[in-house]
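Memo to structure team: turn this sequence into structure tokens by end of day. - J.P.
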Amino acid sequence: MFSISSNATAQSGWISLNSNTTNTITDLCFIDNNTGFAVTKATSSPFQNTIIKTTNGGLNWNIVFNQNSAGLRKMLLYNTIGYLQDTSGYLKTSNSGNNWIHYNLPTGVKALYFIDSMLGYCSADSVKTYKTTDGGINWIQIPSNSSTIFQIQTMYFINSSTGFLVGLGDTHEVGFYSTTLRTTNGGLNWLFASSSVGNQGSRAVFGRNFNSDTLFCFFPAYNLKSSNGGLYWNTFTAGTYPGVYSFFSNAMSTDWFTSTGIGSSTPQLFKSTNSGVNWIANPYFPAVPLYAVTFPSELTGYIGGSFGAIYKTINGGVVTGFTQTSTSIPEKFSLSQNYPNPFNPNTVIKWEVPVSGYVSLKVFNAIGNEVKTLVNENQNAGSYSVSLDGSKLPSGIYFYKITAGNFSETKRMVLIK
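Reply from structure team:
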């Protein structure tokens, strides 16, 4: 049975949720901070792949769809309308995910993408592209004069005109190579955009930075980046991250990707705050294979992985650095005086909570402006400590305040440089 330490997830900026399933969480999609879905894949008999739904921020999950066959893929939601591709077609909901109905796709379709609730595209091998403008009721093949691509892996559209196909192409004289095609006229023409140094495997992950024209395409051992909307592509490296499985960019232009790990490599969570120039791994995140990441708002995000693992952040995934020093249940709430005090530039703050619940610990300057949030999440009963780094703060008087349930206390500290 898989388990994680509460300290590991607390320090990572993410907390563990109970999904009530041991299936692998392969995709997450949220309507808002509280209402969302998880797509699950069974790893043992009877292979009941499911869609589970939460309406209270992940505290409870209920099955809204299950099937015996494999193949549930990526979910797309547009208010009450949603789509989810499977091996023989796709599922559609018209009532916010309470019911899902199966529909067929044209023969041989490998990739599906909806730009909004009505406009969608799908494609089969050899670039047979189809389009719907009525939410999938009718699919019309688009006459196309395009480059040849086989074994299509993924499709992604920026808008109604510009989109990408990734698969194996014959753009080199010998053998097949992982290839990206680009259209700027809604699939009428697909032109060569990039090619890898070889066959990079059967999976490709495509993503776009929320506030720019930066695009990413991750292969199992090879990665591409474009800074001009896909016109030109370059290889890039973010460290050791085999098995990239999902990508998401939130409204703060923070890019995230999850890694399942391959062979002896460790699964990891990475983020970039500068459009992929630098990628930083979260050093405290549990080493469980991660398959899904999504952010319904700037600070609230969810991650899914093996063994039914789902994690949530409400602070944008910021590494907190605090430690649970004891699991013994204290008699009452308390906030200790920081030590040392005065300090330069680091000091330690300790507190105790006798019951599990939401805890906030914030630092304010002398005129009452908030300058740091040290804790902003649910904590189990116990004793905790956190190190405050004041290296970027000016000398002066500061106050730190804890709020937990009906308990609130503020203490004074002095930074002298």
